[in-house]
Amino acid sequence: MKVVKLLYWLCFAIGAGLFVLNLFFNHTAIMVSSLLILLVAIVLYFVHANIKKKRDSIPQEDKRSNDLKKQREDSYKRIREAKKAKKNQKQ
After folding, report:
1. What is the pTM of this model?
2. Which of 56-87 are b and which e, b meaning 16 or more Cβ less than 10 Å from the residue's Cβ?
3. Which residue, among 32, 35, 40, has the nearest Cα to 9 in the 3D structure?
4. For 1-91, where are the alpha helices, taking DSSP H only?
5. What is the pLDDT of residues 7-45, one digit of tens each?
6. Inter-residue contact 64 to 20 (CB < 8 Å)
7. Which residue, 23, 32, 38, 44, has most beta carbons within 10 Å?
């Protein structure tokens, strides 16, 4: 998705630059190329928005898996604390 966003900004910058260049030199080829590049930038913008919309619509991990992760982390913490307590008792 970052690549699409980067391409969008790159096309927009190049198209806008060519459009400004066309104001000074007024060539048909520059005008057509700037408009085509700006059209590509618009298409990439909508592709980026569509990808973002699809990504946001994917449901997050369900609650049960989050609870399992939390239980696993808690058990790891208890094991570490028990090891530290054992080590401190030996000293």
Report:
1. 0.56
2. eeeeeeeeeeeeeeeeeeeeeeeeeeeeeeee
3. 40
4. 2-25, 28-57, 63-90
5. 888 888 998 898 898 888 888 888 899 989 999 999 988
6. no
7. 44
